[in-house]
């Protein structure tokens, strides 16, 4: 099973649209998929034709990830019946904003991971739609994930946000999420005839190399039409919809290849296994280093810990005693060991490590400053 977070540190770039497009691609192939909506706006739930109010939602899961709560939280998407396969959803809720704080403790950061582990049976893919920020909800989603897909658009501020997101994933990987890797950067809402968009797309490719997925996602009104009708883009008629569906299929292919790499890494394969026949071609995702993508062997926590004194609590729906409160508000311990892959392994994400090193920081800022001066002139 692959757990994939879809993230952006800037709002308005079409992150949820990409989540729905990937869910549509999985649904059209009959891949059992769970969509976890941790964005308090709950737009992914709406696009998947899930009622705005449900008996149990993501806020209840984060408050107490017990099996009986999860059984009530997971609901089928309204898409069911259109294509073979099934799409289930843990609906989003505005109440989840109570967990979106910068100082969320390590115990709470792991609760989503624990919850997904308890419901993972029967799913091949889990998609997590994250809020457009780097607070508690996004970090909890990344802690639960194997890969992060970063969504951006061809604009100056969005390019900078993509850079921050890559740095943040690397920092979290070094602290507590050892298997976390970036799947890639999706450039969304590109207008083919825009010189500015072409310029920014070239800038992204120069900055992040093969992490930038090609071709980018074009701007098409048909995507909003399909979402407004709560239908998967793969079922929408017309060539523009087919073009977008094909683009989402390619992103899903890349994600599924990374799942195979993750599975091979669980067998402690040598680093050279990245050159297997499953390796993507023609500029697609650099294969992950198997020694960095071993699955977490830790047993799943029972989820019975009581909320901390400073931690958010969602309204309880099961009548349980909230228990004794704790004052533990500490962050994850920093791993001072250097567990990144060896430099020069061009087919592993370790080859992309310069995206978060000091030397690259300097060259990145230099290139960005130069490009900003050029654009002003």
Order of helices and strands: EHEHHHEEHHEHEHEHHHH
Q: Which word captures the global form?
A: globular
Note the gap between the termini. Answer: 50 Å
Spatial order of strands in the largest sheet:
3-4-2-5-1-6-7
Structural class: alpha/beta
User: What is the helical fraction, as a range of percent?
Assistant: 25-40%
- Average pLDDT, rounded to a whole number, is 77
How many H/I helices?
Answer: 12
Q: How much beta, percentage-wise?
A: 5-15%
Q: Count the strands?
A: 7
Please summarize the sheet with the most strands.
7 strands, mixed
> In oligomeric terms, what are we looking at?
single chain
Task: Supply database-style keywords.
single chain, 377 residues, alpha/beta, 12 helices, 37% helix
Description of the molecule:
The chain is α/β, with parallel strands linked by helices and 377 residues long. The chain is built from twelve helices and seven strands. It has helices at 15-28, 43-47, 58-63, 67-73, 106-109, 111-119, 136-143, 156-175, 195-208, 221-228, 239-265, 358-376; strands at residues 2-7, 33-37, 75-76, 87-90, 125-129, 147-152, 181-187. A seven-stranded mixed beta sheet has the order 3-4-2-5-1-6-7, sandwiched between helices. β6 (147-152), α8 and β7 (181-187) form a beta-alpha-beta unit. α1 packs across α11 (239-265). It starts with a strand and ends with a helix. Mean pLDDT is 77; it is low at 267-310 and 315-363.
